[in-house]
Amino acid sequence: GRRDPPAVLLQWKGRGSTDNLKEIMLGRCFTYTEMVNPELRKDCLKIWETFKNAFISKNPCNITEQDYQPLMELAAHPILCNKTLLWSKTNELAHKYTKVQGNFLTLEDTLLGYMADGLTWCGNPSSSEMNYQSCPHWRECANNPSSVYWKMASRAFAEAACGVVHVMLNGSISQPFGNSSIFGSVEVHHLNPKKVHLMKIWVMHNIGGQPSDSCSGSSIKELKSIIEGRNIAFSCEDDHRAVQLIQCVGNPEEPACRVCR
Ligand code: C8R
To answer: Does this complex have an ipTM over 0.85?
Structure first.
């Protein structure tokens, strides 16, 4: 079966396309357009076909932005002002938080992010099938189908932001702001200063762990100068309490989590 391929077919180092990719993505598209955001009128079958055409029968190391352009246009939809939450290296915490605090939207709360979250996909030039055996790891080639997709979806999400933009960063790693992350290399540079007037950073630290960097560290200072240089006001807060309370669910006895701290 396809779960146990002959070793000779494992041409790439990354995981192969997710089994039942079509059913999962179509199902997510219908769930999104019927239940999550029911005002949205989208043709999910057409979206699936357009998605597939971006990478099927193509070299998975040579995917271009043009390949995904038709999908980006088809799947675009408006995003409310002041609700955007960006993140870097805080995937799990950011999404736990938005699930509880319904007033924020991450890219996964838009159609493009919702459909693709956690999935893998690629094709190859010699067939019109998905490659279920292996797909290029981003270290093998940057222009692989998922990296180009996330880059483009993230750029569109940043371009659509307006009002105040919040960002959750990880203060338990040495560089909470990494200028080669998607946040640092794509989103920061595609916020529109005519629409976005303030970026509010939350630097979160693992409860009970050693903080590695904070709002006063050099990494955040670099981000501050980039943002202010783009004429967007900047603020930073360590361990925003509402987010910390989410971390406290799993660590109620830690000093930071006690009611009388
Ligand atoms: N964003 C980027 N990548 C995303 C993503 C998303 O919303 N959702 C998923 N699952 N991924 P990181 P970063 C996957 O290094 O590079 C947007 C992709 O495989 O912790 O700064 C989002 O709006 C991708 O390669 O963060 C957010 O603000 C990794 O997760 C930034 O971009 C990226 O994880 C986060 O991108």
So the answer is: yes
